[in-house]
Structures are given as C-alpha cells and as structure tokens.
Specification:
The protein has 102 residues and is of the alpha+beta class. The protein has 3 helices and 5 strands. The chain has a 3-stranded antiparallel beta sheet with strand order 4-3-5. Strands 1-2 form a two-stranded antiparallel ribbon. The structure holds zinc ion.
C-alpha cells in the first residue's frame, strides 16, 4: 500500500504515525477537566491521539500531553482512569505495538 494516510502525533511517545493505529481522545463535554476515548473519531472539538498502549498513556500523563493537545490547563488526567478507559475502549488490544519493538 502506497496510498497516503493521515499522520498524527501520539501525545505519549510523540511518534508521528498513521492515524489509524492511534486512539482519539476528546474533552468530555460534560466536564472539561476530563477526557473521553473517541474510537469512532466522530467526536467534536479538538482531538488528542494516543497509541492504545499503557506506556504511552503513562508518558502522556507525565508530560501533560493531553493539556498540550487541547491547549487547556483544565485537563486533569489520572493514569488509573486513563488505563481503565483504554481497556474499555479497546478490549482486544493485546498485540504489542510496533513502535516499542525497535
Ligand atoms: Zn505512543
């Protein structure tokens, strides 16, 4: 496949990769300090992109990747909540991501 695919930057590891391997997250419309997974990519507003990977989730929380992606300092992302939401959004995510094998 040589067709061009949209590229996005993971807010955890900062790797630029195909949009389709990343999970989109949006600000919770009910509570702008929280985020929601948007696996169908239909949510409105600014999106943040993250590998469905606990290590990237950890990096994103530590580096404030979500606050930077949304340009909002109100975001309060707890790692536990993020991992739980990740598991819920992608119950079948068991294959190791390519970017951690290099
Ligand atoms: Zn990543």
């Amino acid at each position: 496949m040589t067709t061009h695919r949209p590229q996005r930057t993971c807010v955890g590891c900062r790797l630029v990769t195909d949009q389709e391997v990343l999970l989109r997250w949006i600000e919770d419309p009910q509570d702008p300090s929280r985020i929601l997974p948007d696996p169908k990519r239909r949510g409105t507003g600014r999106g943040a992109w993250l590998h469905p990977d606990p290590e990237c989730a950890r990096l994103a929380v530590r580096r404030g990747g979500f606050a930077r992606a949304y340009r909002s300092s109100r975001i309060r992302v707890e790692l536990d909540e993020l991992l739980a939401a990740l598991n819920k959004a992608l119950p079948n995510a068991s294959c190791p991501p390519e970017h951690l094998q290099t």
